[in-house]
Amino acid sequence: MPTTTTIAVVPPPPPAPAPTTSPPGTTTSRRPLHIEDDPTAAPVPSIQESTEEKRRWGLAMLVMVLAAGAAAARAARRR
Fold first, then answer.
1. How many CA atoms within 13 Å lie on the side-chain side of 11?
2. CA-CA-CA-CA dihedral for 67, 71, 74, 79, to nearest 10
3. For residues 77 and 68, what is the distance between their CA atoms, to the nearest angstrom?
4. What is the tens place of the pLDDT at every residue in 10-58?
5. How far is residue 76's CA from residue 4's CA, in Å, rounded to a whole number?
6. Distance (Å, rounded) from C-alpha 79 to C-alpha 37?
7. Count of Cβ atoms closer than 10 Å to residue 22 Cβ
8. pLDDT at 29
């Protein structure tokens, strides 16, 4: 039994459009973005202050986890 193969014919892609110049009539100019560096606006905390804040958050999370565990145990005993 002979097999036939079908070959798809693909047309060539259309030619690329010619590059155009900038559009006429653009008289507005873009001003550059100006960002001021103000070192007094956001002082960087010292390492000691950062460590103390992390410890406070850690302690707060520990208390919340213990309280949630105690509440769950109490709810389990009531059933």
1. 3
2. -160
3. 14
4. 788 888 877 666 665 556 667 767 666 665 656 666 787 888 899 999 9
5. 75
6. 61
7. 6
8. 66
Tokens of 51: 């460590």
Residue linked to tokens 């007094």: 40
Alpha helix (H) residue ranges in the chain: 47-78
Calculate the dihedral angle through the C-alpha atoms of 24, 28, 32, 38, rounding to the nearest 10 degrees: -170
Q: Where are the alpha helices (DSSP H) in 1-46?
A: none
How is the chain split into domains, by residue range? Answer: 47-79
Q: How far apart are CA 7 and CA 11, in angstroms?
A: 13
Two structure tokens written together for 3? 């097999």
Residue 29 class from Cβ within 10 Å (0-12 exposed, 13-18 middle, 19+ buried)? exposed
